[in-house]
Amino acid sequence: MKKLLLNIILISSLGLTAISCDRSLDEVNIDDSRITDPVASKLLIPIQYNMASVNYMRANDFTFDIMQVSLDFPNEGNSLSRYYLTENTGAGFWNNSYKWLKQVSDMKLAAIKDGDKNYQAIAMVMNAWIYSNLTDTYGDIPFTEASRLDDGISQPKFDRQKDIYVQLLNDLKEANSLFITNKVLIGSDLFYKAETDPNGILNWKKFCNSLSLRLLTRILKKNGEVNVHERIQEIVNDPTTFPLFQNNNETAKLDITGVSPMLPPIARPQDFTTGRAASEFFVEVLKANNDPRLALFFSQAKDLATSQNIGYKGAPSGYAFGTSFNYQPSNMNQNLAKAPLKILIYPYAELQFTLCELANRGIIQGNAQAYYENGVKAAIEQWGAVMPANYFANPNVAYSGNIDQIMLQKYIALFFVDQQQWFEKRRTGFPVLPNNGGLLNNGNLPQRLMYPPNPKVLNTTNYQNAVQQMGGDDINIKTWWNK
Known about the structure:
- By secondary structure, this protein is mainly alpha-helical.
- The chain has two domains: 70-83 and 272-449, Serine Threonine Protein Phosphatase 5, Tetratricopeptide repeat, CATH 1.25.40; 90-246 and 450-483, Serine Threonine Protein Phosphatase 5, Tetratricopeptide repeat, CATH 1.25.40.
- The protein has helices at 4-14, 25-28, 40-66, 91-114, 117-138, 161-178, 200-218, 228-236, 269-273, 280-288, 294-297, 348-360, 368-381, 403-413, 420-428, 453-458, 460-470; strands at 70-72, 141-142, 158-159, 252-256, 276-278, 302-303, 327-328, 341-346.
- The protein has a two-stranded antiparallel sheet.
- Helix 5 runs antiparallel to helix 6.
- The protein is globular and about 70 Å long.
């Protein structure tokens, strides 16, 4: 179903061609089914739906395990939750990302040809979103020469992560200047309904600048090598030029209605919970906070002897081999895989925690506690829960000014947001995840994924050059922004 929207657009774009009996052989051999002149307005929806679905599945299949949200259960073998990774762990993510990046490139070129600055800017934002997730996953990746098969480049070089980041940040700044906020799009938009909503393009502009802050905060360690603080302050200190998200309504998200073709990425909700348990760490964090999302995220555990509910109780991720359980752990709530649902691309709550951290570190002016409390409230409400009136009376969530607390709450807010929990854990070291006795890799959180088989086999020379400049193709190699 993920390909349905694109197929509909391709089919509708073709039209009926009459075949004359006196056509020459050269005319007959022309591939009439190939779209040689893409239209930007027809490309946006397939990119949005498919990449949102890819990232939803990435959270479900990878981030939940690596970041102790859930785990395979019962399973005493090697698994992601034990830090067992192979070269195939991210192969689908790599292949799908590059597939849709080609469509993004086509959309940008079509927009430039048509003089449509809004579609050009949107293409640049989508490009930065997808590429930043790729480079944060692998490190050095094909970038400047990627998606250029039409130019005869079938074996693209791998660009250094620093160069990729600098270009993406420059692209986002340019995109911000291109948006024409008093115009609507000529085609449909799944994120902001910018074809009808008069604030749609302004919301795209806010997404653009909020994404800039995500990337700039990711590379905080590289201030000096890149003018990180200056770029952050430029954005935060000039909200007229660089508007940011102001509330949950402006969150970048995809609404899955359940009406074809807007169907959930997981076709059968039971598949979402089969062979799985909720992780003890994530469950206990929410329990300690008296969090109203407990029932939204989890089912209740059961005593195996009595089959009675015993409340919310997860299984320890990476539990020691041979551990036995006298209870059936809580599982994830199947409603998280059922329509209607929201696929979060960039939540407003994330931005608030980013601003909190930047204020806490003295990089920007502002009330760090206010940002923190806004972030906590937004993270609760983005799931349809009600913020308890006395929530901050709980010392576990009352603002302390400690970076570990800020990042713990950001971790919760990033639930189901592609791989952002993992990226932020690698960047800051928080939250501190327990080693329950069965972790592999000496208990060390993987710092990147190994390159998948395709570039190794089909782009060997450039792959080998990338491995050399990265320092190895190993899960413990830190990427540029974390060294």
